[in-house]
């Protein structure tokens, strides 16, 4: 196993397999075009760490903490994010496939162009996040908290927002006729937007 350097190191084009980084702390490291397979990052802390064009396969992020970190144009396949927390992080252009992403907490940051198509997002908490043009097609957001989120341009067709708290979020591209929305919570301003989407004139 490779012992991770703790701060200020750049890695490029490297492959990490079956590494045990349980509970380790990473600060201000940079990974470019790297691959991670069967790596254990359970309860790890990653602060101001950046990953660009990286591939993650069967990586365990359980109960990990990510602060001001960046995952740009990365792919996550069969990864586990059970009780992971992202605070002020950028995941622009990243893709999640067959990954367990609940319960997940995301506070602030930029998740624009992220693909979570078909993801099970039941009970997740996403607050104050920029998710412009994100792909949430068919995502199950039942009982989730998705508040003050910029969903402008997002793909939301066939998503489930059953009992979802959507207050303060941009729902300008939400077609109420193409999603499940029973019990969803919205504010007064959003009610007008949704009514107009259904063809009502509000006056």
TrEMBL record:
Organism superkingdom: Bacteria
Protein name: Pentapeptide repeat-containing protein
